[in-house]
């Protein structure tokens, strides 16, 4: 059986050879012949293993080398990195390294380094880029007007200060409920008052007035919009100002006990002093009234309280008035 | 006093865009009623507060903003940051159920940084603020409070005559 | 998370059923294990830089994966942002199946979301471009804001390995 097989096998290549030579005649090519018939073919009954050993080669597209290798030294960096972007090692020609390692080991390089991708970079805001962009937007800017250099100068013409706040956050919405707040502040000395209206105005505004700095501050956050709050603040200011000039009929009934400070003009001490000065005066003669400095010293003594200076001054004034020297 | 005020009104800058339309209107003689240039607003102070989780990013951003202000000719005020960050802490048990003495703390830190700019006109402020807001890095919240200067309104200059 | 409900109407009911079952994932329970890896006997567990540093090194040795202003003091909608981030992470890892080699970094700037990740070069560039467009389009539809993918590719998974334990 086996002898018959080998004989058959020996005869086969002869035919093959003949066929190949015939082809060679037609194609007229000088090819070396492949002599694979010299090896014995191995009969393997378990062919399964061999089939799996031949792995399929994964065909991969050629990967281009990083762009940094082709970059010129004097390139325009603002064109390479025009806007905010996560770090990409193939575009940045810097030998960066990032990461903590044990002592002696080098930090991880820029390729496949997630730490470099995480940190926000300012590669689009290099000094030349900032200068370039600022020169482009400079034509929208206007200089500060002359004559208003110092705070004292601008406060004379623009006494009211309006403070508003804008918010910029990384959210899908641009609305922030805090942005509605408006603060209007001005010095009270910039508004004109008489003594009654000033007193009434201060009572109306309450603790919005700072006594030490003489500044009135109105903060409004009632309305949902900034513009509405600003209008409301100005409305409050206007309403309080105009209301303070109104004298209600019941304000006339303010008695001495309701006064918040002592006034010489409307008190008993003035009548007594006049009585002393006009002692034994004839009927119809011009009345003498106590001097202004005396009135001041009495007011000071009662409003500020008794201290050494006020008492001494009062003593001097009394002596002067009574001509006791 | 009045004279000074008048000269001041003249010296006040006009809003860039409205000024352009006004001049083009006069040149073309198309519209007989040239729009009156709207006087620009004046801001005495622009205070910017930044919050972020990484102080280094805030520092870089401050450098960017102050450099831009220098290029645009804006007067820079005090730039500072508080030394310590705000810590928001949450203390939990380390184990699931008992062992009260063993706790663990989580915290979120918020770093602050402040910048001040002085004496800006309305158009300068809008330009500058939009420029730096557009370049705001991720993870940084910005809060800009501006102080506008205004004249006393007409109806508050004199005491009311009839009340 | 209305869009999630729209996305999977049946899932909402299932979640309610699940919440009744005795699965608990509280903060306390996960703390000791989360983000920490055990040493293997053969010393062949591959760790990236991110995995090699446990969570208490955030801000010292490694930085944050989510960059937004919602976690700051007095910030708006912290919970919505966190849930959206989880959703983006799940969507991207699922869409780029077995391709993502690192954590997914989500950066929010104004109203835009930028997503950065390391991707393995296992698929053809053509498929990769399709997936980029697909991810951006769907995410921007759900989040109602522009989404940009900023990917970096690595040749092999071993490129991102920092150490073996």
Automatic annotation (TrEMBL), chain A:
<dbReference type="GO" id="GO:0005763">
    <property type="term" value="C:mitochondrial small ribosomal subunit"/>
</dbReference>
<dbReference type="InterPro" id="IPR039848">
    <property type="entry name" value="Ribosomal_mS35_mt"/>
</dbReference>
<keyword id="KW-0689">Ribosomal protein</keyword>
<feature type="domain" description="Small ribosomal subunit protein mS35 mitochondrial conserved">
    <location>
        <begin position="175"/>
        <end position="244"/>
    </location>
</feature>
<dbReference type="GO" id="GO:0032543">
    <property type="term" value="P:mitochondrial translation"/>
</dbReference>
<dbReference type="Pfam" id="PF10213">
    <property type="entry name" value="MRP-S28"/>
</dbReference>
<dbReference type="InterPro" id="IPR019349">
    <property type="entry name" value="Ribosomal_mS35_mit"/>
</dbReference>
<keyword id="KW-0687">Ribonucleoprotein</keyword>
<dbReference type="GO" id="GO:0003735">
    <property type="term" value="F:structural constituent of ribosome"/>
</dbReference>
<protein>
    <submittedName>
        <fullName>28S ribosomal protein S35, mitochondrial</fullName>
    </submittedName>
</protein>
UniProtKB/TrEMBL annotation, chain B:
<feature type="domain" description="Small ribosomal subunit protein uS10">
    <location>
        <begin position="47"/>
        <end position="145"/>
    </location>
</feature>
<dbReference type="InterPro" id="IPR027486">
    <property type="entry name" value="Ribosomal_uS10_dom"/>
</dbReference>
<dbReference type="InterPro" id="IPR040055">
    <property type="entry name" value="Ribosomal_uS10m"/>
</dbReference>
<keyword id="KW-0689">Ribosomal protein</keyword>
<dbReference type="InterPro" id="IPR036838">
    <property type="entry name" value="Ribosomal_uS10_dom_sf"/>
</dbReference>
<dbReference type="Pfam" id="PF00338">
    <property type="entry name" value="Ribosomal_S10"/>
</dbReference>
<keyword id="KW-0496">Mitochondrion</keyword>
<comment type="similarity">
    <text>Belongs to the universal ribosomal protein uS10 family.</text>
</comment>
<dbReference type="GO" id="GO:0005763">
    <property type="term" value="C:mitochondrial small ribosomal subunit"/>
</dbReference>
<protein>
    <recommendedName>
        <fullName>Small ribosomal subunit protein uS10m</fullName>
    </recommendedName>
</protein>
<keyword id="KW-0687">Ribonucleoprotein</keyword>
UniProtKB/TrEMBL annotation, chain C:
<protein>
    <submittedName>
        <fullName>28S ribosomal protein S24, mitochondrial</fullName>
    </submittedName>
</protein>
<dbReference type="Pfam" id="PF14955">
    <property type="entry name" value="MRP-S24"/>
</dbReference>
<keyword id="KW-0496">Mitochondrion</keyword>
<keyword id="KW-0809">Transit peptide</keyword>
<comment type="similarity">
    <text>Belongs to the universal ribosomal protein uS3 family.</text>
</comment>
<keyword id="KW-0687">Ribonucleoprotein</keyword>
<dbReference type="GO" id="GO:0005840">
    <property type="term" value="C:ribosome"/>
</dbReference>
<dbReference type="GO" id="GO:0005739">
    <property type="term" value="C:mitochondrion"/>
</dbReference>
<dbReference type="GO" id="GO:1990904">
    <property type="term" value="C:ribonucleoprotein complex"/>
</dbReference>
<dbReference type="InterPro" id="IPR026146">
    <property type="entry name" value="Ribosomal_uS3m"/>
</dbReference>
<dbReference type="GO" id="GO:0006412">
    <property type="term" value="P:translation"/>
</dbReference>
<keyword id="KW-0689">Ribosomal protein</keyword>
């Amino acid at each position: 059986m086996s002898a018959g097989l080998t004989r058959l096998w020996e005869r086969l290549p002869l035919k093959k050879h003949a066929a190949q030579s015939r082809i060679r005649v037609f194609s007229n090519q000088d090819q070396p012949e492949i002599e694979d018939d010299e090896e014995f073919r191995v009969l393997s009954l378990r062919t399964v293993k061999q089939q799996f050993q031949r792995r399929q080669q994964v065909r991969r597209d050629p990967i281009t080398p990083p762009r940094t290798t082709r970059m010129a030294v004097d390139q325009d960096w603002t064109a390479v990195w025009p806007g905010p972007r996560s770090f990409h090692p193939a575009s940045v020609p810097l030998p960066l390294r990032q990461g903590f390692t044990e002592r002696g080991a080098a930090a991880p390089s820029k390729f496949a380094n997630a730490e470099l991708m995480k940190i926000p970079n300012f590669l689009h805001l290099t000094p030349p880029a900032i200068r370039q962009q600022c020169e482009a937007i400079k034509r929208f800017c206007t200089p500060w007007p002359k004559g208003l250099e110092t705070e004292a100068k601008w406060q004379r013409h623009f006494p009211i200060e309006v403070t508003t706040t804008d918010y910029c956050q990384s959210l899908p919405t641009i609305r922030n409920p805090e942005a509605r707040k408006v603060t209007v502040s001005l010095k009270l000395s910039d508004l004109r008052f008489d003594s009654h209206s000033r007193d009434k105005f201060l009572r109306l505004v309450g603790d919005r007035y700072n006594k030490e700095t003489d500044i009135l501050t109105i903060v409004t956050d009632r309305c949902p919009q900034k513009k509405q709050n600003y209008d409301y603040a100005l409305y409050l200011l206007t309403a309080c100002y105009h209301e303070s000039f109104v004298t209600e009929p019941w304000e006339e009934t303010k008695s001495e006990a309701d006064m918040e400070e002592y006034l010489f003009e409307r008190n008993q001490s003035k009548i007594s002093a006049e009585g002393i000065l006009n002692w034994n005066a004839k009927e119809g003669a011009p009345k003498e009234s106590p001097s202004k400095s005396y009135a001041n010293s009495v007011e000071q003594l009662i409003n500020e309280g008794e201290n050494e200076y006020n008492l001494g001054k009062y003593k001097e004034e009394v002596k002067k008035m009574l001509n006791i020297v | 006093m009045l004279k000074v005020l008048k000269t001041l009104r003249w010296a006040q800058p006009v809003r860039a865009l409205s000024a352009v339309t006004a001049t083009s209107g006069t040149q073309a003689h198309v519209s007989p009623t040239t729009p009156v240039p709207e006087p620009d607003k004046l801001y005495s102070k622009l205070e910017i507060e930044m919050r972020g989780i990484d102080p280094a990013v805030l520092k870089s951003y401050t450098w960017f903003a102050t450099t831009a202000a220098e290029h645009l000719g804006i007067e820079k005020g005090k730039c500072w940051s508080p030394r310590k960050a705000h810590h928001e802490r949450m203390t939990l048990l380390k184990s699931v159920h008992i062992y009260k003495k063993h706790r663990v703390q989580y915290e979120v830190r918020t770093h602050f940084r402040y910048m001040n700019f002085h004496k800006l006109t309305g158009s300068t402020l809008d330009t500058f603020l939009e420029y730096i807001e557009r370049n705001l890095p991720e993870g940084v919240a910005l809060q800009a409070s501006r102080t506008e200067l205004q004249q006393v309104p007409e109806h508050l200059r004199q005491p009311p005559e009839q009340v | 998370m209305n869009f999630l409900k729209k996305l999977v109407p049946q899932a909402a009911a299932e979640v309610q059923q699940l919440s009744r079952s005795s699965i608990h994932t509280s903060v306390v329970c996960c703390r000791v294990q989360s983000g920490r890896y055990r040493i293997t006997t053969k010393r062949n567990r591959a760790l990236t830089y991110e995995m090699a540093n446990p969570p208490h090194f955030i801000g010292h040795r490694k930085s944050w994966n989510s960059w937004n202003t919602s976690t700051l003091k007095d910030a708006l909608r912290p919970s919505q942002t966190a849930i959206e981030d989880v959703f983006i992470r799940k969507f991207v890892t699922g869409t780029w199946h077995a391709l993502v080699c690192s954590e997914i970094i989500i950066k929010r700037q104004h109203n835009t979301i930028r997503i950065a990740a390391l991707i393995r070069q296992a698929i053809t560039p053509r498929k990769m471009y399709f997936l980029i467009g697909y991810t951006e389009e769907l995410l921007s539809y759900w989040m109602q804001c522009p989404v940009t993918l900023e990917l970096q590719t690595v040749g092999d998974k071993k490129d991102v390995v920092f150490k073996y334990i």
